[in-house]
């Protein structure tokens, strides 16, 4: 496959993976936790490198998943102690991200790890970072990681769809019928962490946050059904990745930044024109309602 096609495939996989996991964060009112995890996994990546002395993707996934779960645990701990959830997220997020930045500066200054790369990523390098497995042809490492994570995410959602749905909409009922609410929560946070780090190296934290939140938020305004929301979110993620790439090529700007911008524009359009929940649709509905004297 050619250079451009690999970038589109990798960007689309980021959109699908982040889109479907982000839906649950939106519904659980944990959107800002996505921002926190997408930054704190930097600490997990650095820690994995320091322990293994390798940039192998498997070690990165383990390190990121561990720190993602740690982030969720600390936020939950502070929140259950009486601190507001947004304040808990802010404290944990800034602390763990800052520790990651310090460790990079001290121990990994000469390695392919830096804060600018972590924030913005560089998807244009994806087609050149190839790996070969057995008799299969060489493929980009990012494609292999994101494809594997997509399969894991799909299996997880299909196996625990009922549990995820009930714990998301009615955690009290879920606990009453014996579903381990906290375990499902941490499994979901682990899924978010693994998804984040798989996308991290290619597109950076900014696009990961955009893909985790914007497609799910747009889909939320378009439907009230979870299964439809998951599909719509994935479609929006792919669409924004493709349009964002061509817009970046046309304007000669950052590809990740362009993809994130398209996500924002799609949300803005949906926010205004969604059939039932859009601002303009609501106003038209109110104006068309007959007034009784």
TrEMBL record:
It is a multi-pass membrane protein. It is found in: Cell membrane. The chain crosses the membrane at residues 6-27, 32-51, 57-75, 87-108, 142-161, 173-197, 203-222, 229-248, 254-274. InterPro entries: ABC_BtuC-like, ABC_TroCD. It holds the Pfam family ABC-3. One of its GO terms (cellular component) is ATP-binding cassette (ABC) transporter complex. One of its GO terms (biological process) is response to zinc ion. Keywords: Cell membrane, Membrane, Transmembrane, Transmembrane helix, Transport. Belongs to the ABC-3 integral membrane protein family. This is ABC-3 protein. It comes from Bacillus methanolicus PB1.
């Amino acid at each position: 496959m050619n250079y451009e096609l690999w970038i589109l495939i990798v960007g689309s996989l980021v959109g699908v993976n982040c889109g479907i996991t982000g839906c649950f964060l939106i519904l659980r009112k944990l959107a800002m936790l996505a921002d926190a995890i997408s930054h704190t996994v930097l600490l997990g990546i650095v820690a994995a490198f320091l322990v293994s002395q390798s940039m192998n993707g498997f070690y990165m996934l383990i390190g990121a998943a561990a720190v993602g779960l740690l982030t969720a645990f600390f936020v939950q701990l502070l929140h259950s102690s009486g601190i507001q959830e947004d304040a808990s997220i802010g404290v944990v997020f800034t602390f763990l991200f800052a520790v990651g930045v310090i460790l990079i500066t001290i121990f990994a200054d000469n390695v392919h790890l830096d804060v600018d790369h972590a924030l913005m990523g560089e998807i244009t390098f994806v087609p050149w970072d190839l790996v070969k497995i057995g008799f299969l042809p060489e493929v980009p490492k990012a494609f292999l990681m994101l494809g594997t994570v997509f399969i894991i995410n799909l299996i997880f959602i299909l196996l625990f769809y009922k549990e995820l749905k009930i714990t998301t909409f009615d955690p009290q009922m879920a606990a009453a019928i014996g579903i381990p609410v906290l375990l499902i929560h941490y499994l979901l946070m682990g899924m978010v962490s693994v998804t984040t780090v798989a996308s991290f190296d290619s597109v950076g934290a900014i696009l990961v946050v955009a893909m985790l939140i914007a497609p799910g938020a747009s889909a939320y305004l378009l439907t009230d059904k979870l299964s439809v929301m998951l599909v719509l979110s994935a479609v929006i993620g792919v669409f924004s990745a493709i349009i964002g790439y061509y817009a970046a090529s046309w304007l000669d700007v950052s590809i990740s930044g362009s993809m994130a911008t398209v996500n924002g524009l799609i949300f803005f359009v949906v926010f205004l024109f969604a059939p039932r929940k859009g601002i303009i649709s609501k106003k038209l509905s109110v104006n068309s309602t007959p007034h009784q004297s």
